[in-house]
Amino acid sequence: MNISVFGLGYVGVVSCACFSREGHRVIGVDIEETKVNLINSGKATIIEKGLEEQIKDSVEKERLTATKNFEEAVMESDVSFICVGTPSLANGSINLAYIYQVVKQIAESIKGKDSFHTIVIRSTVKPGTLKTCTEIVEDISGKKVNEGFGMVSNPEFLREGSAMKDFVEPPYTIIGTYSEKSESVLKELYGSIEAPIYCIKPEEAELIKYANNNFHALKISFANEIGNICKEHQVDGHKVMDIVCKDTKLNLSPYYMKPGFAFGGSCLPKDVRGLTNIAKKLDLETPLLSSLLVSNRYQIDRGLELILSAGTKKVGFLGFAFKSGTDDLRESPIVEVIETLIGKGFDLKVYDSNVHLSSLMGKNKEYINSHIPHIYKLLKEDINEVIEKSDVLVIGNNSKEFKEILHKIPKDKTIIDLVRIDNELTTSDNYVGICW
């Protein structure tokens, strides 16, 4: 395949080397003559293990050249990768000027091109960038998207020092596009790489790189704060975190990685408070750990705002305990929401088969009687009664019965889902998801 790569910095030059190694003909494009000359003389523009050897080999085999002539590069290629920088501005937002500059160059170049051209944004960009770039290309080229050209978001996952290896051994390949033709082009291009390919919406693809990198930053900060607490107790922080990472059932797994409502129960809130208190007594700063309950509080407020914005005071709750399959009401975030609505004079109905059946025994009987007797009076035994007498229905946990009855809820009632009871649903019509 004939490929043009715009931007001969870190991502661009690695892409040039790896695509040409696979036998594709690659044209690197950059405004800096020094970089162009380096590539054409078989040298790398950055230091990276194995990179210069591959560039030298590809140049000698005439699979790789570089130029400042963007029009020539576009006309001689089927797909253009945009790998230019997106640096931070003073206020923290990203500078997309280089992206737009290259997109305009490509748009101008495909004006006189008869064949279909695929434009791929490899750089890290904010959600909606591909949409804006599509409009720019349509306006300048006069061509219609998905007919004369296709746009793709294809974020990279390269680490400095192991980029050549990461290119051919990525965790996955992301193809974010609305163009079937461009999707096929990228599937063919990455066909030799043994990694799953996920074809998703461009906006989803644009957010994935940010989610990944912020998660990495989160993990580093978390480990450092735990390590600081460990050291003050004369404990080896590496040993503690090594064991934490051995748990692939909960700790390093997808289990807690689904967006939804706030956490609750008898363990998490208590232990977050406990550890931050330990750090405080040691005069240690734990900005990340100390933010957990603040963030959790925000998610409760966000759920509450969705209910208040529905514009009715007749609200029914399906699910009362903090998660399905349990009768534990201690620090249930749903309880906080219900108590707030009671204070605002809402007409509430609550259904939870687990809580109702178990409420006459054990710790929950004591908790209900001493902490939330006013809420217990709102409990109904019949789920249909709650549905019938409510204008808004809030799904508070992912009990199987709530998914089964979902399609029976009349369309004139608003459903606010805090747990994503059905993975196929996203906010539309009378259905509102808190994070989807």
From TrEMBL:
Q: Where, if anywhere, are coiled coils annotated? A: none
**Catalysed reactions, as listed in the record:** UDP-alpha-D-glucose + 2 NAD(+) + H2O = UDP-alpha-D-glucuronate + 2 NADH + 3 H(+)
Q: Its Enzyme Commission number?
A: 1.1.1.22
- Classify the source by domain of life: Bacteria
The UDP-glucose/GDP-mannose dehydrogenase C-terminal domain extends over 316-423
Q: Which UniProt keywords apply?
A: NAD, Oxidoreductase
Q: In which pathway does it act?
A: Nucleotide-sugar biosynthesis; UDP-alpha-D-glucuronate biosynthesis; UDP-alpha-D-glucuronate from UDP-alpha-D-glucose: step 1/1
Query: Which Pfam families does this chain map to?
Result: UDPG_MGDP_dh (PF00984), UDPG_MGDP_dh_C (PF03720), UDPG_MGDP_dh_N (PF03721)
* Family to which the UniProt record says this protein belongs: Belongs to the UDP-glucose/GDP-mannose dehydrogenase family.
Stated name of the protein: UDP-glucose 6-dehydrogenase
Organism of this sequence: Flagellimonas okinawensis
Q: What is the lineage of its organism?
A: Bacteria, Pseudomonadati, Bacteroidota, Flavobacteriia, Flavobacteriales
